[in-house]
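WARN retry 2 of 3 for item q-0093 after timeout on previous attempt; input resubmitted unchanged.
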Amino acid sequence: MIVVTGKGGVGKTTVSAALALACARRGRRTLVAALQPKDRLSPLLEGPRIGPHNTPVLPNLEAVNLTPEAALEEYGRMVFRIRIVSHLIFENRRVLAFLRAVPGLDAWAVLGKVTYHAMETDGAGRPRYDTVILDAPSTGHALSLLALPRTLAEVAPPGPLRHDGRERWELLADPERTEVLPVTLLEEMPVTETAELVERLRGDLRLPVHRVLVNAVPERTFEAEEVERAVSEGLAPADHPLIRAAVLDLRRRRIEDEQRARLAARTGLPQVDLPLVGRGRLRRAGVERIAEALERGAPA
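OK item q-0093 returned
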């Protein structure tokens, strides 16, 4: 199971889609799950509309856009096992209204469904999916979501809820089965938030985090010495539009290098760079480029 998270706006959904493509290309049966009010995965994958139920998108790849309502009903079926009992409970509007008012239950139902699929097996005892990717909420909400199983394992009364909490906490905390994957940009606020996220994951939660994905890294097409030589040798005037643009780009790169060093100093984690792919609406061809960068930069 791979949990993708980070500050809002860093490209978590794009990275989740790229990871899903990379895994599916390797022949791994993959499920990618998003927690979005709007379906943002299907335009990236150029597949069918993705709703609240697992949908085949490409060979070896399924996707789901989780809603608390659908997840709660599915979780109820898992807990009560018997469909008719589940139907009586979860088709009752008063019961549903009561359940949705319970703090944290919506989040637990969503996490419960995703982690269920990470542990799900077929009739022969083989995993239904080889990889489950969760496009998790932004940092603060993701930390609360990931802490839920441990809380339930510790405070829930004996019964199915405590058992499920303990089982899912063991899954999330196992470095052989799970990785939390922070995504950031080389900007001050995302880097700061990513460093704090890693500290919380390692400290309070003790969850496995092994690397940081640095998203939207522009290609470097020239070096500072080339610009300086062009000006000093009179190849181009200092106020030439291309020289001015190059100087501004070099300043941006120095800022990025500073942020990269900050990130390394605070986390000590390896950084995997993902390319900046255009600035308009991203389509599958662009996501494929990011998937290729992931395959080059991440271990099998």
